[in-house]
Amino acid sequence: MTSPSENLPVLAVPALPSADTLAKLQAVADATLAAVKELVVDSPAQEQGAVEWQTSANAGLKDVEGVREAISKPINGWLREFNARFKPITTTFSEARKEAERKISAHRAKLRAEEERKRQELEAARRLKEEAERNKNAELAEAAEALEAEAQEQVETVVVVPKTAGSSSGMSGSRMEWKQEITDPDAVPREYCVPSDALLRDAVKRGARDIPGCRVFEKEIFSMRNWR
Fold it and tell me: For the chain, where are the alpha helices, taking DSSP H only?
């Protein structure tokens, strides 16, 4: 059997940056942040100074990202290829497990339906007997009592759906949980509906400026370009 890891390229893990290198980068970042916090921007000249610090911070981000990616890119690329080789196998095993669960669940649903049917028949026989006794109908009461006895006997033969099932190779457990499925979106109460930020954002991009329940406003977005 061929191993999924066979013929994978050899992973040459780059050396991690030294603690001294990271400490120096952190010191520059701390100094940059401290300086920016002290800035006062009340004039064109001061704004130009703020832009200098802005570009400096952006350059620092690029430097740090370059150091990080030099190590992470080859590792991530190798890991993506490694995981891709296992994906078809895990997908197939998962589907096999789900198919087994579907068939077990269908079988247990039949058992539960049969149990419920027999219990309903017993309840119906008891109601018929009570009605006959109230109406003093001896013949009907006798027939209902026979039906009740027969239904009770059927209920006692019901196969109880187990919470666990075992085999020679393992055990499977299950429990019943309440779930939900949307069948009519318009009928769902308002308190269970969450506004879609993605849809609202798209509407604003297309020109919507007055959306009930929303504040539509302009926000300055910066784009950076360093000259080095």
Answer: 19-37, 44-134, 138-156, 197-205
Reported as a single tens digit per residue, the pLDDT across 166-179 is 677 777 777 778 88
Lowest mean pLDDT among 153-157, 159-163, 221-225: 159-163
Phi/psi at 18 (5° precision): -70, 160
The C-alpha angle 172, 178, 183, rounded to 5 degrees, equals 125
Q: What is the dihedral of CA 90, 95, 96, 99, to 10 degrees?
A: 160
Model confidence pLDDT, tens digit, residues 189-210: 989 999 999 999 999 999 999 9
Q: Where are the domains of the chain?
A: 19-163+187-205
Cα–Cα distance measured from residue 120 to residue 114, given in angstroms and rounded to the nearest whole number: 10
